[in-house]
Amino acid sequence: MKDDLDYDDDFAYNNFDDEEEDDDFGMTFEEDLYLMIREKLRDTIQEYKGKYPLLKKLENAVSSFKVNAKNTDDSKFYPLAAKLLSEHIKPLTEESEEIQEIYDNMQTDITRFKNQRAHGFEGDFYLSA
Question: Is the pLDDT of residue 110 over 80?
Fold first, then answer.
């Protein structure tokens, strides 16, 4: 009696191409990376703002951040947005060691726009407190 499943056919559908890594949602690498940076930043602020009150300033800065770059494709828009967000919060690094650590760890992820194979920041939060 033969199995109804053909394992060779099952594996044929799982040919992943690392070079072209668009999610099932149709996101580009750049969009996915930018959203991950924003999510880590948001989660870090939510997790630690009770312990470090100056993170409320960072929260306000991040929530007020807007990018206006019309007619820009994803490969240029998201790296630009990450760079501008980084520049937007950089002045706050002088006020707090924690914000400096968050900023530095965020930079590790931002470098992945130039080198997709670079190791980003490993943790779930940008703060290791």
Answer: yes
H or E element that contains 105:
helix 97-110
Nearest-Å Rg of the Cα atoms of the chain is 19
The number of CA neighbours under 13 Å toward the Cβ of 8 is: 0
| Contact between 31 and 113 (Cβ < 8 Å) | no
d(CA 104, CA 86): 10
In this structure, which long-range contacts are made by residues 78-87, counting pairs with CB atoms below 8 Å and at least 24 apart in sequence? 78/28, 78/30, 78/31, 78/33, 78/34, 78/113, 79/30, 79/34, 79/110, 79/113, 79/114, 81/34, 82/33, 82/34, 82/37, 82/110, 82/113, 83/110, 85/37, 85/38, 86/110
Strands (E), the chain: none
The tokens describing 76, both together, are 């240029």
Q: Using H for helix, E for strand and C for coil, what is the string for 64-87?
A: HCCCCCCCCCHHHHHHHHHHHHHH
8-state DSSP, 89: H
pTM: 0.75
Cα 88 to Cα 81: distance, rounded to the nearest angstrom: 10
